[in-house]
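Write out the 3D structure for:
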Amino acid sequence: MDLGLTGKRALVLASSRGLGAGIAKALADEGAHVLICGRSVDKLKANADAINAAGKGKADYVEADLADAHFVDAMLHAIHDKLGGIDILVNNTGGPTPGTAEEMDAEKLFNFFQSMVVRVITLTTAVLPLMKTQGFGRILTVASSGVIEPIPNLALSNTLRGALVGWNKTLSSEVASYGVTANLILPGRIHTDRIEELDAANAKRQGKSVEDVRTASLKTIPAGRLGKVEEFAATAAFLCSEPASYITGTMLRVDGGGAKSL
């Protein structure tokens, strides 16, 4: 299938590693020009070099931190300077610290709300006029399966990513007639460094070994294994594609059947 992504310009947030890096590679493999960003210049450069060496799409990178108050302005300048416009925005953010609902304090809640919600929404709003004018746009926001089935000990993530659900659905109906789609993609347990960190945190909280925690978690996944970044990224690339033009306002799980809800 031709995804129609050749020459499309894509900004992928938080793409120095993990799911963001995987999505950037998948888009570039389909011929897109991707702009990756994150806090680790060394990882960004390595990712961009690998994409450019593959000779399919093209990659540029810019150092940026979602926690920075000037993040949105920096991204808008980078879009202009590096891409010359934008067709695809992948809103990906790092996950907040694990913890219970009772452990959430006002300062922590406010800080993560700024980086995981406010800047995602503000940046999306800023790029929409161009997408609407050109009659094509893809807004894809990486959330979590926790928005449909809250994940124990991830109260901050469940709360903040949940806020993006209502926003995305509202936005999708407002921009659909302009050829712009807005969707959420919900990863379950995909094998990344983040999963390793969460397993370690859960092992400490439960007084168990990491291996015991991991074995128990695999038993809850009908597929019987962790997902691969490449599998998740391929799904993301499709949602950003031309053939996915009639898919908007939805949430797509990539979780091996792990979520128990309908």
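The mean pLDDT is 95.
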